Amino acid sequence: MNRLPEHVRRNRAHWDQLAANYVSAGEHRWAIDVPNWGIWSVPESEVRMFPDNLAGKDVIELGCGTAYVSSWLAHRGARVVGIDNSEQQLTTARRLQREHGLDFPLIHGNAEAVPYPDASFDFAISEYGVCLWADPYRWVPEAARLLRPGGRLHFLVNAFLLTLCVPAEDDCAAGDRLLRPAFGIYRVEWPTDDSVEFHLSHGNWIALLRRSGFEIEDLVEIRPGADAKTTYPFVTLEWARQWPSEEVWKARKR
Ligand SMILES: C[S@@+](CC[C@H](N)C(=O)[O-])C[C@H]1O[C@@H](n2cnc3c(N)ncnc32)[C@H](O)[C@@H]1O
């Protein structure tokens, strides 16, 4: 534990404390078979988070939380591994595995340093997991190490523009003003809790992904449907219909 980076220790405590709030969302998403994504529950048919033909593929979810994404992958025939930094989140994931009769490895650890050999996986995915809460200069090269040539990395996270517009105070939604500089954005600590997030500009994501051995295949700016709803207070539907509130990066290992 003491050898973990400081942000990983802080985020472990944060997520162990928050885990109880994520149980019912985990239960709900474990129970559906047609995936939907992010805070607006946008359907898989629009986002295409999953590559075709997952059957028999080795896949890893980086920051799996309650592991509903892993369960969707397992149902599609993938050999899935989930890793998460919070034992409390994994306790929910393990219970849901038992209730749904699925069994795949769930590892308690820091996805910046995954205990698997090089080139173990064909696909790596993260939805608001490692891609938000871990240091991109550690986890992106680690994902590249884990993937085989031609393997894919897909992740969904807050859009860069939203991060610039969201107020630091709790329960306040993004407005139409830029509240912080874009240049230099990296480690973000909100005053309302003790967690540590990481956000990069698009230019820095592109540079990091390419330097780590990826080609970028797509950047999907998510547009919620007209009647979409979210339980999260930091963005309104009106805002998210005008500007990207979430984005999906898709990259392929060279
Ligand atoms: C919001 S949950 C993501 C799971 C799910 N997709 C969701 O949206 O609810 C964020 C998860 O990332 C995990 N996490 C944060 N930092 C991590 C790290 N360095 N390594 C592995 N998991 C991490 C947290 O423990 C937490 O369970």
Protein architecture, described:
By secondary structure, this protein is α/β, with parallel strands linked by helices. The protein has helices spanning 6-18, 23-31, 44-47, 68-75, 87-100, 130-133, 136-146, 160-165, 202-211, 237-240, and strands at residues 36-37, 42-43, 58-62, 79-84, 106-108, 121-127, 147-158, 187-188, 197-198, 214-221, 246-253. The strands form three sheets. The chain has a seven-stranded mixed beta sheet, sandwiched between helices. It has a two-stranded antiparallel ribbon with strand order 1-2. Strand 3, helix 4 (68-75) and strand 4 (79-84) form a beta-alpha-beta unit. Bound molecules: S-adenosylmethionine. The site of S-adenosylmethionine has 21 residues, from helix 1, strand 4 and helix 6.
* Unique ligands: S-adenosylmethionine
Which structural class do the helices and strands define? alpha/beta
As a percent range, the share of strand residues is 15-25%
Largest sheet: 7 strands, mixed
- Report the count of strand segments: 11
